[in-house]
Amino acid sequence: MLALLLTAIPATPALALSIDASAFTTLSGTTVSVTGTGFTASSSVLIYFPDTNTLKTSASTDASGNFYAAFSIGEYPAGSKTVYVKDGANWYPISFTITSVIGLSSSSGYVGDQITVAGTGFAANKSVTITFHNANVGTAETDANGSLTNA
């Protein structure tokens, strides 16, 4: 007698992280979109950032085990960060990079006009030199989150 035992091994869920830089409209940060496939159908997933203790949002999977969630990352210094997705007892880390972004109070002006420079994603608690056509026009100090404003 010959017997065959087949055991199904569940596939590891596939995760995708996308950061929409075009969503940067204020210094409060960008919106991060997290999508996942291959999870248990009709179940909950929890999204943590910047660590496994800070719950940012949750999502429900559809009948096929797919989910979508979005949240604001707030202001953080530039560098590598991790979003953590949890389904039940399993943790799935997703790494991404925060880059520096600056904005100006005006895109044009006259000689002598004051233009405010603001930015986020810089190193924390550092001095930043602001230049225009290779000339030093000011400095600004970043805060603990890597944000700056030069009035």
Give a concise summary.
The protein has no helices and twelve strands.
The proportion of strand residues reads over 45%
Output the strand order for the largest sheet: 4-3-6-7
Largest beta sheet, briefly? Answer: 4 strands, antiparallel
For this structure, what is the CATH homologous superfamily of the largest domain?
A: Immunoglobulins
CATH architecture of the largest domain: Sandwich
The helix-strand sequence is EEEEEEEEEEEE
Low-confidence stretches: 1-7, 17-27
Helix content: under 10%
The CATH topology of the largest domain is given as: Immunoglobulin-like
Q: Output the number of helix runs.
A: 0
Based on CA inertia axes, which overall geometry fits?
elongated
Let me know the average pLDDT: 80
The top level CATH class name of the largest domain = Mainly Beta
Radius of gyration: 22 Å
| First-last Cα distance | 85 Å
Class derived from helix and strand content: mainly beta
Protein name: IPT/TIG domain-containing protein
Describe the fold and architecture.
- With 151 residues, this protein is mostly beta strands.
- It has two domains: 14-98, Immunoglobulin-like (Sandwich); 101-150, no CATH class.
- The chain is built from no helices and twelve strands.
- It has strands at residues 14-19, 31-37, 44-48, 55-60, 67-72, 79-87, 90-98, 101-104, 117-120, 127-132, 135-141, 148-150.
- It has a four-stranded antiparallel sheet with strand order 4-3-6-7, with no helix packed on it. It has a three-stranded antiparallel sheet with strand order 1-2-5, with no helix packed on it.
